[in-house]
Amino acid sequence: EAAEELVKQLRSVIITRSKEGATLEEIIDDYRELTGDLLLDIFGSRQNLANYLPTIDGIWHWTGDGVILWFCSTPRTKHLVELINGQKSNVLAIRNHRNDAPVSYSVPADPVPPKFFKDNMRPPRKPYQSRYKQPYPTKERRWRPYNRSHRPKLPRADKLDVRLFGPSFHKHQLVGDDFFLSIAKCELDYSFDQGHEIAMSGLCISGLTLAEAAKRVEAAPYIASQVLVNVGTVDLLHGRQMIDLIQDFDMLMDRFRERNVEPLITTLAPIANTGGRSVMQERLCKFNEYIRSSCPNYINLDRYFQNDDGSVRFECYQPGPRTVTGSTMPHVLWNSLGRRHVLHELGNELANRICESFFWRNI
Question: Where is the OSK domain positioned along the sequence (predicted)?
Fold first, then answer.
């Protein structure tokens, strides 16, 4: 029970610094202010604490510029992390505080969780002697993510709240693989979510398959009423059979409908890894036909990447394949021309739907 309470408190102090990450000294400092207890009395040394943190579910670390930063996010706390990430950082306060805390420990690749017993959870208190000369900063000087002076910016009128829904385009939440992820990052100026080995921004996730998308939609704390989906290319690149594509796609649609959402599905653009007719391209054509026949709301995205004779418009793709973090298969992604072409056509399609809906409501 004492160990569970310790885990909750450690998660709490790390989550409050989700935007910039927490150094070990900040964790020790925040824990002392939260509970009045010293983590070094519990663990004995900074190294022992650093060994323990990775054993907690949802906590990970990132190393950059010689500083080890700790992050925490679980399905139950994801909304808090997103709220904090949407707030403005007090960069000066963070920089000054971290300059006083050089790294004097290492993080093992495979940490071993310590054993907790009643007599070592709260050993006798010892007089605290800081190894640094600077005293603990007062509350007035300490940065807090929830400080009123750092209120998050309100979302733009044409965008959803990024803290809840991630990337969006004209009030449509985006769900997709590396193709939509590149649009979110390069064209819509959304940043990657921190602390993940796989590049992601909201529900735009590198290497996202149909089955994984279904799981993400089911588990997501927030799903917008309007969603724009482009998923399935990764399944084709990995050689999935047509029957598997159909089953996974139906499962994805079921997960959306369980959330009372009828998503707007885009057909898949041609895969530039292979030229001409191939088994992969034939499956892609059949899958696009299945989308058109089974979905009440869809956008024919594939036609914008084909010439009149049916050949692929390779000028819309990058010159060669590249590796992505979420898949073992190389991807030939859209280039700047292709990405802007997609946004232009999607914008036109959404505008047509809005005008059509307005017309039928007013006849």
Answer: 165-351
**Which CATH number describes the domain made up of 2-150?**
3.30.420.610
Task: Confirm whether 2-150 and 162-361 share one CATH topology.
Answer: no
**At 290, which helix (H) or strand (E)?**
helix 279-294
Give tens-digit pLDDT for 151-205: 444 445 568 899 899 999 999 999 999 999 999 999 999 999 888 889 999 999 9
CA–CA distance from 329 to each of 233, 287, 321, 323 (Å)? 11, 20, 9, 7
Kindly state the tokens that stand for 223.
Answer: 């799903």
Distance CA 20, CA 26 (A): 11
User: Closest Cα partner for 290 from 258, 330, 335, 244?
Assistant: 244
Please name the CATH architecture into which domain 162-361 falls.
Answer: 3-Layer(aba) Sandwich (3.40)
What does the pLDDT read at residue 360? 59
What gap in Å lies between CA 265 and CA 225, rounded to an integer?
14
The H helix count followed by the E strand count for the chain is 14, 11
Q: Where exactly are the structural domains of the chain?
A: 2-150, 162-361
Q: In DSSP terms, which residues pair with 76 in a beta bridge? A: none
Report yes or no: 68 and 61 within 8 Å, Cβ to Cβ: yes
